[in-house]
Amino acid sequence: MTSEREAAAPAPAVGAQPTIARVYDFVLGGKDNFGNDRAVLADLLGILPELQGAALANAAFVPRAVQAVAEQGVRQFLDLGCGLPKATSATVLAAAQQFQPQARVVYVDTDPQVAVHGRALLGVEGQAIMVEADAREAEVVLREAAGLLDFRQPVAVIAAAVAHFWPDDDEPAAVLRCYTEALPAGGFVIFTHARGDLLPPNVLEKAVAAYGEAAPIFPRTASQIADFLNGFDLLEPGLVEASQWRPPHGPQDDVRKAQFLAAVAAFGQEPARADAS
Fold first, then answer.
1. Which of 132, 181, 218, 248 is at a distance of 20 to 30 A from 254, taking alpha carbons?
2. Is the Cβ–Cβ distance between 102 and 40 less than 8 Å?
3. How many other CB atoms are there within 10 angstroms of residue 223's CB atom?
4. How far apart are CA 36 and CA 154, in angstroms?
5. Residue that wins the pLDDT comparison between 6 and 115
6. Prediction pTM value
7. How high does pLDDT run on average in the chain?
8. Over the chain, what HEC string results?
9. Cα distance between residue 10 and residue 12, in whole Å
10. Mean pLDDT of 113-120
């Protein structure tokens, strides 16, 4: 008998163009990827072998952050650039429902393959939907999300490992604020971004070129990443390497210079006081 996950998986493809979602799926130990995706990752790990540990740390941060805001009473989540369902961590809905049984999630991704998987594996009637859209088109995403989420109540916007695919010409920090400014009840931003300023310039250049086989990527400096969150109220411990954000078992393995910076930040009108009934 074919499992639901197997039924949703892509058919093997020869020479398939690598994609962000499938490369990330492979680095996290998933199976929904092709040979060219694996070749991109092999090239990346040849340049930056600690990248896999950093990606795993980034993926593990998200459920911890979801827990933190769910414990504050938030039960609505908008997951931008959600990617393929990850074998290494609980879904956003599952993580949230441990603390908010009535939690609802809108997953968003522009990749048609992700949308197929999301509808098959993430959608739950009345609790979670999949929206196929470019997260930079905030008006489109918010219009679709309003079918499930009540914007009169706080919302947690998840932008994990997505903004570093937005070039400066797109004004990526402004894209993020399009969401927060459209949510009158406030909420939280769960945010991660690839950091590049710790790497020697030649290593950074090679890594960016290798990833460019799947999509252009724009690692930024710590200062530039911090600018995304200007004016927001960061929860402790602030903007830190992902594995160091409230680690469950004390200090985590050092991912060296392949870092995703991570933070959870409040915005709007006292979102921590959301009605959790």
1. 218
2. no
3. 8
4. 41
5. 115
6. 0.90
7. 90
8. CCCHHHHHCCCCCCCCCCCHHHHHHHHCCCCCCCHHHHHHHHHHHHHCCCHHHHHHHHHHHHHHHHHHHHCCCCCEEEEECCCCCCCCCCCHHHHHHCCCCCCEEEEEECCHHHHHHHHHHCCECCCEEEEECCCCCHHHHHHHHCCCCCCCCCEEEEEECCHHHCCHHHCHHHHHHHHHHCCCCCEEEEEEEEECCCCCHHHHHHHHHHHCCCCCCCCECHHHHHHCCCCCEECCCCCEEHHHCCCECECCCCCCCCEEEEEEEEECCCHHHCCCC
9. 6
10. 91
pLDDT digits (tens, 9 = 90+) for 78-92: 999 999 987 667 899
| Residue 155 CA: distances (Å) to CA of 15, 24, 86, 109, 252 | 40, 26, 22, 18, 29
User: Contact, 74 vs 274, CB < 8 A?
Assistant: yes
Please answer whether residues 146 and 182 qualify as being in contact, where contact means their C-beta atoms are separated by less than 8 angstroms.
no
pLDDT in tens, 196-255: 999 999 999 999 999 999 999 999 999 999 999 999 999 999 999 999 999 987 556 678
> Between β-strands 104-109 and 76-80, what pairing exists: parallel, antiparallel or unpaired?
parallel
